[in-house]
């Protein structure tokens, strides 16, 4: 089950992979997998070879997780993350605007699907509650 990324401030200092895991709720394995896919890149490595990340990596991973939660496949996520962050930094292009607008449409669709599932779950919960109430009488 996917969970919402951990929110909150990100320290303005070099972060080890464990710090990034704590700040995002991701496993070390997932962070390494996302690195292999090019979704996040460490700033560098320590003398001992450990990955060092910055706050931007945490923000990227939080956005990746949000996009995964609404059901987007990983191959679609990277261009959306790149475009969104470029626009937020004032460096976006017309193509980035189009990419983010398309994603907004996907988000709207996902919200409608979630609302439909929530409505069905509420109805089912009421029905099951009524059924057990009748059984107790």
From TrEMBL:
Give the signal sequence positions: none
What Gene Ontology terms describe what this protein does at the molecular function level?
DNA binding; DNA-binding transcription factor activity
Q: Which domain of life is it from?
A: Bacteria
> Per its record, how is this protein called by name?
MerR family transcriptional regulator
Mind listing the UniProt keywords for this protein, alphabetically?
Answer: DNA-binding
**Where does the record place the HTH merR-type domain?**
14-83
Spell out the PROSITE patterns in the cross-references: HTH_MERR_1, HTH_MERR_2
């Amino acid at each position: 089950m996917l969970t919402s990324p951990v929110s909150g401030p990100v320290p303005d200092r070099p972060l080890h992979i464990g710090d990034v895991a704590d700040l995002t709720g991701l496993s070390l394995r997932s962070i390494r997998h996302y690195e292999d896919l090019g979704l996040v890149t460490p700033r560098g490595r320590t003398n001992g070879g450990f990955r060092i990340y910055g706050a931007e990596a945490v923000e990227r991973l939080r956005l990746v997780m949000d996009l995964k939660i609404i059901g987007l496949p990983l191959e679609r996520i990277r261009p959306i993350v790149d475009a969104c962050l470029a626009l937020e930094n004032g460096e976006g292009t017309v193509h980035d605007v189009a990419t983010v607008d398309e994603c907004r449409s996907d988000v709207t669709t996902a919200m409608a699907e979630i609302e439909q599932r929530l409505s069905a779950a509420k109805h089912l919960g009421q029905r099951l509650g009524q059924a057990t109430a009748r059984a107790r009488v």
